[in-house]
Design goal:
386 residues; alpha+beta; Immunoglobulin-like; Glutaredoxin; four-stranded mixed sheet; 43% helix; 24% strand; globular; disulfide bond; Peroxiredoxin; redox-active center
């Protein structure tokens, strides 16, 4: 009777034991150790974790060079493990293709190393090993790893002749490297490493995008429905949108209020060359670029150039103060909605300064013109200054 009760209890517990094992598999644990780490408290950060269909960041305190992260991911994802370094602009960073598994990481702290860490060794993640085989393996099989090492040594010696020879050798090895990559991708269509590689090679043209999208549609259903795949499809759609504002296409019309509240349309400039400049008062590179735009305006305005500046500011006072300080004489517009500015959203502005040169017919003829390149393009359009 006692044996029968025990057997019944075991049977009843089986589903819960199975569930517990499943739950255990759905979590990751990262044991990290960084040798020669300076003494003292130091936080380690884990970023770009895909959990609940969003990106997350975690942090733990490192003690004696050791740290442990615990959590879960929805799917394998490339994450950054980084440590802030006092006096250094960028943190020390290590990349890991994270999945729900027990993972061990070991490295050595070395300030002379590029990322302040060297001898990085990661075990326990199958997809990380696949990703290493894809990229590092292709580097080794093509010989580009040795060429890179030799180039860095020649660079230290300032041996320009050797550097040129190695650059030529690298071009030759690149063909083999590309073949190795393509062969690996063809042999491993169900790997997340393959999907991540595809996320890095979004085609620039419509025909390429159509073919690329069709190839994605042939991939494993798990990959197609992943968070990473959705970001790739979003990138495809964005690239298609960018093609609509590429040189050779008609500019998208927009309307924005000027400093007096008068509505100004881009189409008001039809029949003239207009340089549309996206900027902001708080943007240091924009402010540094303004003198170049002022010079271009002074040199080419009499020949027919107009400038229309669109600010992504959200504070009227700061915007107008910068206009006065930089002595910008042309029309300034802004809806003062910051990055939600309707014109900047139409032109997919995610970083500034950004600009478009539009001809009298309303066609975009150039974009991203800065410094001397702006002057050279205007000389091409209007002829040399006389």
């Amino acid at each position: 009777m006692k044996i029968k009760i025990i057997l019944i209890q075991i049977v009843l517990l089986c589903p819960f034991l199975g569930f517990a094992q499943k739950e255990k598999k759905e979590h990751y644990i990262i044991h990290g150790q960084i040798d020669s780490m300076p003494q003292g408290k130091q936080y380690v950060y884990l970023s770009s974790i895909v959990r609940d269909q969003e990106f997350h960041t975690d942090s733990v305190l490192m003690k004696d060079g050791k740290f442990t992260f615990r959590g879960r991911v929805d799917e394998p994802c490339m994450v950054n493990i980084y440590i802030n370094v006092p006096g250094r602009k960028y943190p020390a960073t290590m990349k890991l293709f994270l999945e729900n598994a027990k993972i061990n990481l070991r490295a050595t702290w070395d300030k002379s190393a590029h990322e302040y860490v060297k001898n990085l060794k990661i075990t326990g993640s199958k997809v990380h090993e696949e990703n290493e085989d894809l990229f590092d393996g292709a580097m080794k099989r093509s010989g580009r790893d040795k060429i890179r090492e030799a180039y860095l040594e020649a660079e230290k010696r300032r041996d320009t002749a050797q550097m040129q020879a190695l650059t030529s050798a690298n071009r030759s090895a690149l063909e083999l490297y590309t073949k190795e990559i393509n062969d690996w991708i063809a042999a491993n269509p169900h790997s997340f490493a393959t999907l991540r590689y595809k996320s890095m090679i979004i085609p620039p043209d419509e025909a390429g995008l159509d073919k690329f999208e069709a190839e994605l549609g042939q991939m494993d259903s798990v990959l197609r429905s992943s968070f990473l795949a959705r970001t790739i499809y979003a990138d495809i759609n964005e690239q298609r949108s960018r093609l609509k504002i590429a040189p050779g296409t008609m500019a998208i019309d927009f309307v924005q209020p000027d400093k007096d509240g008068k509505l100004v349309r881009l189409s008001d400039y039809r029949g003239k060359y207009v340089f549309v400049d996206f900027w902001a008062s708080w943007c240091v590179p924009c402010r540094a670029e303004n003198p170049h735009v002022v010079k271009a305006y002074n040199d080419f305005h009499k020949k027919g150039l107009e400038v229309l500046s669109v600010s992504v500011d959200d504070k009227r006072e700061a915007w107008l103060k910068a206009v006065e300080q930089d002595q910008l004489p042309w029309t300034q517009v802004s809806d003062l909605k910051g990055w939600e500015n309707s014109a900047s959203r139409s032109y997919l502005i995610k970083a500034i300064p950004a600009n478009f040169l539009i001809d009298p017919s309303g066609k975009i003829i150039a974009s991203g013109l800065r410094g001397d390149n702006l002057h050279k393009e205007l000389e091409r359009v209007f002829g040399n200054i006389k």
